[in-house]
Each structure stands twice: as structure tokens, then as C-alpha cells.
């Protein structure tokens, strides 16, 4: 495999200024955000413009999840506008929704509907949970306690754990006492946990039948651990919210095929220090745009 691969990062706190700045400088990005905003008003009843008038980062799940997808789709369309079309994509967590859009498997409205209704449906359980990055392999994390689960495998020695807030805090305390570095994710919720129900009929009913189309490029599903065409139904998208993010296996699948450089699409660079652990490197779209401004 040769060519361009876009990596859509997972959820992080969203600062308003980068999005406002990009909209002022990049007409194509602004156009896509306006389109996303109109859909969010219909599907969620709130506007991104209203959020920009307030101070602070956007971290609550019902808004953070669709905002991340909107931001990433805006960046993707900006790249396409400048002639950069991916030969393959990979996404983490909410980034998997953006990756599905980038392949052409789902349209803009369906991508945002998955994000909106997914965020709302996960919130009651997710707000009781937290996630923490641990400098240990996944197998070692599983041995800590059966009250936490593996949320993401980021590298051979980097794992994200998830569970009820008190259980994650207790496990983190034990790890720190054992001189194992930990880093709580800066979000007031946790997902990718079996504490979420196995099925969510209300989410599935809200999404209904998705109008999936043929994929224009290859994609690796970090929730399935294999190559995919993203012909997912609503139940499969709900599985994505519960399943561990198999990021390291996904990157290794590309590296084994000769791809070692990835374009990161997200509001802030998160992969530049991670990918070298996997024999690869990342170029952040937002960093590149900031340098060019």
C-alpha cells in the first residue's frame, strides 16, 4: 500500500479559538462548519455559534462528541479542497465516525446524527466513568483489578483504562504507588467500557436505517480490529462506543504495508509523540495551518 493516510483522533477538550480562527482564514472550512451547524440545530437543538460566545473548553459528552466530528469533517474537506485525498483512513473513538464520512460510506447528516445521538445516549453511564492513560501493556492493566476495563491500546506499553470514576481513581492510586506513570484524560466522562449497555434500543431507533454507500478508499476500524468498508448499522455503531480502541494494531497494519506517515485531523496534535512508538510519524493539519497563517 502506498499513498496518503488521514488519522482522525479521538475526543479531547475543544477550545473555541482554533475553530473560530480557521473559519476566518479558510473559506472551505467555514462553509463546512456552517453546514454542520445547520444540521446540529435540527438534530440537537443547539448551535456551535452559541457555544463560541461562552468561555472555557467544551468537554461535556453530548456536545463534545458532535463538535469533534464536525471539526474533523471540516478539516477533511479543507484537505480535499487543497487536493489532498486519502488513499486510506483510520479513526479513534469519535474519529471513527469522521473516518467513515471520509470514505464516503456515510453522508454528513448521518455522521452528525451518530455523534449527536451517541453522545446523548452514552451520557447517563459515561458521566459516572473516567478514563486514564497508563504506562503499562494492556495485559498488565487487566491484572490490576476486574473493576476496570481496557478502553484503548495506544502502544505496546501505553493503555487507556476505563471504569467507574472511583474504581479508575483507586487503580490509578495503586499504580502511582508502584511508580507506574498515569495520566487522567481531561474529560468528565468515560466510554469504551462494558458498563455501557450491550444494546441501546433508543439510540438505534434514533439513528434508524443508515444510507451507506461504497467506500472510496481503504479504512481500518479500530473498534473492529480489521479493514472495513464501514457498512455499519446503528447497532454496530453502538458497539464502537463500547469496544476498546485498537489504535496500535491499526497503525501496525499500515506500517506492515509500508505506510509510516499519517496526516492527523483534529483540533490539536495528539499523535506526534505517540506514533514514533509504533514506527510511524504524524503531521498535524491544525499545526500546519497555524504555521502557514
Keywords:
2 domains; Acyl_transferase_dom; 12 helices; globular; alpha/beta; phosphopantetheine; phosphoprotein; acyltransferase; 6-stranded mixed sheet; 293 residues; Alpha-Beta Plaits; Malonyl-Coenzyme A Acyl Carrier Protein, domain 2
Assign the CATH superfamily of the largest domain: Malonyl-Coenzyme A Acyl Carrier Protein, domain 2
Extended strand count: 10
Look at the structure and give the CATH class of the largest domain: Alpha Beta
Residue-averaged pLDDT, rounded?
94
N-C termini distance: 33 Å
Which spans of ≥5 residues are poorly predicted at pLDDT below 50?
none
Oligomer: single chain
Number of helical runs? 12
Strand content: 15-25%
Give the H and E element order.
Answer: EHHHHEHHEHEEHEHEEHHEEH
Strand order of the largest sheet: 8-7-2-1-9-10
| Alpha-carbon Rg, integer | 18 Å
Pfam families: Acyl_transf_1
Keywords: Acyltransferase, Phosphopantetheine, Phosphoprotein, Transferase
Organism: Cupriavidus oxalaticus
Protein name: Acyltransferase domain-containing protein
Description of the structure:
The protein is an alpha/beta fold and 293 residues long. Helix content is 45%, strand content 16%. It has helices at residues 16-25, 27-43, 48-52, 61-81, 94-103, 108-126, 138-142, 165-177, 201-207, 234-242, 247-255, 285-292; strands at residues 5-8, 88-91, 129-134, 149-155, 158-164, 182-184, 218-221, 226-227, 261-265, 281-284. A 6-stranded mixed sheet has the order 8-7-2-1-9-10, sandwiched between helices. A 4-stranded antiparallel sheet has the order 4-5-3-6. Strand 7 and strand 8 (226-227) form a beta hairpin. The longest helix is centred in the N-terminal third of the chain and has 21 residues, at 61-81. The mean pLDDT is 94.
